[in-house]
Amino acid sequence: MTVQEYNRSVQEYADSVYRFIRGHLKDEERANDIVQDSYEKLWRHVAEIEYPVVKSWLFSTAYHTMIDIIRKEKRMTSLEPSIEQEMIYESQYSDLNEILQDALKRLPGQQKTAVMLRDYEGYSYKEIGDITGLSEAQVKINIYRGRLALKSYIGKIETIL
Fold this sequence. Notes:
Layout: H1 3-25, H2 28-44, H3 54-76, H4 96-105, H5 109-120, H6 125-132, H7 136-154, H8 157-160
Helix pairs in contact: 1-2, 1-3, 2-3, 3-6, 4-7, 5-7, 6-7
């Protein structure tokens, strides 16, 4: 990859990688750090990576970096047991985006990743599998289960509106 292609990848993909990571972490600073780390790793491997695969490579690298950070934080958390919240629908909400973001927060990690990559970023099942390291069948199952969980949390659209 040339320097011009590297710069083009920054212009074309940095925002979408940031949105993807920010959607998971809900922390702008950590999301920025992960995107910056991903581009730093890309720069270190610039001679080995061809431009046509750079988008998948960036998403995959950012995803794995994010997972490493999440695992590290889990080990560092206090020993108090966490109490899982029930998926309860509250009819007072009127902002659909807020409802959707709250529902996405409640999904397990792989389901959330698969749904976000498919529905927000428009990746194919194969591309999602390449990014996450899952088979296409596992990706489809995670998307299906994630959408079912979202549907059961959100409820009927008529009751929201």
